[in-house]
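Checklist before submission:
- one chain only
- standard amino acids only
- sequence pasted in full

Submission:
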Amino acid sequence: MRKKKKKFKQLPELLAPAGSLPAALTAFDYGADAVYAGLEKFNARERTENFNFDDMSRLLAYSQKNNKKVYITLNTLVKESELPEIFEYISEIAKLSPDAVIIQDLGVLKILRDYFPEIEIHASTQMGFHNSAGVNFASKLGIKRVILERQNTLEEIETIVNKTKVEIEVFIHGALCCSMSGNCLLSSWLGGWSGNRGKCKQPCRRRYYSDSGNGFFLSTKDLYSLDIIPKLKQIGIKTLKIEGRLRKPDYVKNTVSAYRLLLDSDSEEDFDKILRKGREILSRSLGRKWSFGFRDKNAFKDVIEHKKLGVSGQPYGYVVKTADNGFTANLTKRLHIGDRIRVQPKSGDEGPTMTVTKLYQNRKNVNKVIQNSECFIPCDKDIPDNGLIYKIGESGGELTSKIRNLPLKSFPVDLNISVTENSFSIQINNVPFKKTWKKKVELEKAKNKSLSSEVISEMFKSTNSERYSLRNTEVSIDDDYFIPLSKLKQIRREFWNWFNENFSESSMHSHIYKALESFQKRYSEKQGPKSIKEEYSVQENITDRTKVSGGNTIKVHTLDDFNHATDEIILPNYCFEQNLPIIQRKIRKAVTKGKKRFRITSLYQFELLKSFNNIKVCTSYPLPISNSISADEVINIAKIMKLKLNHVQGWVELEKKELEKMIEKTQVPVEIYYYGRLPVFVSRAYMPVKGKIADGKGNIFFVVADSKSGLVYLYPEKVLSIPHIPNTSIFKDLSMAEKDEKNTSSFNFEHTLL
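Returned file contents:
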């Protein structure tokens, strides 16, 4: 007897990556409900080709015509000097009317909410939301959807969905960052290439050395979730997301096809058969070895693949010899023109990728090379000696003709058409100022077939212009009339001719230009406080009570270590769902003991402090405040939550000139992370090494596991130490550093953060 189909709350949206227009169209062709894509700047994957505005316009025109969705990524931190540029960027995005924008920076959030309320906001995983308190707080910020931290367990995700009303999105497949989202400074620490700004150089994929051996101690397997799709459907998650904006259309085709197959299947009886088919399709995507990610605590032990080079793709051979114009390769498998390969250094550092456009064997130009033979591959890239060759993709056509015929997105027009015996009256509803067109007509009463609203709506869809298109039509007819089709067409032509003459691009987007003008005026006049009292803040271990001389010292301790001498309590930046009640009790205990000052290190903490009176707060690492508008948003948050904001801490990655520009514009005092050993990496994954490790370039780090929280931290050997900036307070963090250590680094303070 065949089992009944299970009923699910709602089939989740399948969201695919789109690093290019061909990838986006491929995703739609193979079953994606939506894609997420970035423009050329301000997105967390700036290393891929990304979209220009015209191609994004074409994609949005296509998606809306085919009932699909497009989410634009603006999920990076923004410097003070970039604020005018990103506002103009957002202004151009607003003209395209995307289905949503994905953000990380609190300043970008405020700009969107204050100036472009019509744009739906999704919180990137980079914002670090990982519990129900944070998700519920996100709704207060105007966020429609939260993309959860990738290191949440399945049980935690289910609890969050049940405790919140905000739409929840989770990753189901693709490359995993080993560090908590938004908390990785490793690439930035090693050269200013910030993962928080889309520039990550993936130093986690390197080989590291320790006293107990060497390995790829920070390199994760890829996330895989095919077999838990039924569970994810039952939970009620809004969107299931595939990672991979750096990947090509063939990867998108295979991953979307596999997950679409499992999503559309309701048969328990045939599940194993369908799962096998899905896995077979997925195996063609040429990624890394699969893991269950952070599905449960047992899975934490299997996330890292430390014994093998952490590179995606299928091993295809090795480099025999390099030349100025290419390299000689010994291939273990057959290679074709059009295949994509990566040549990987054995160190694990990032290797060059390329599409094979020419192949030579025995000095002859060939289309393919058989396995176990040598060939010469021309290229103009720096090929590592003895590099390992991996196939990472196949040619699958670039949809050239289809893309060539895609129109730009037109301005959507909403009409209200009113028909009486002697007139047609048409009101345009969605322009900044409502305007009405009227036409006198003499209509006869219908004897047989009368004029219908459906006929009028269909007739007016023909606009005779690529600049605008009819989106919504409301039609009212006060009686049964007859009108010849030729006359109705004439009325339509007259209306659209009038519309074309009276509405320019600037008039249709006048509210956007007014918003831009308003922002530019306000920002040019924006000034921070002239001067502030210098306040020396110290975060120290409970065992270290030495005060800083020459200033007002404030003692900062954790919730677990505070005592009568504690002036300020720093809250834990991570609190997974099961620990929320514990943290709430500890905060209540601290307030009962008279503690009124708290350091906010993660947005969820605002939600936990809202029920207490007379609480003073400041922001602190790792909550990123990278510009004055993000500081303004914190001011706004404090007012909403009825908290007193003492100051904000400038983001630790910023260079001196950007910190100074931010201080000049910020409305509240700014604190600087002045001294301390920063955790450049934090993870729930089991690390196969402890203590001191070093990479092949001599950079030394320490792996420290916290048994209480279950988190693993990576600390650099060097202590961050920067000069004092006038008119700021300073924050000395002695939790993992001794006073006055000599081996120091100024991080990005003296050079440009990329």
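Reviewer check: The chain has 19 helices and 42 strands.
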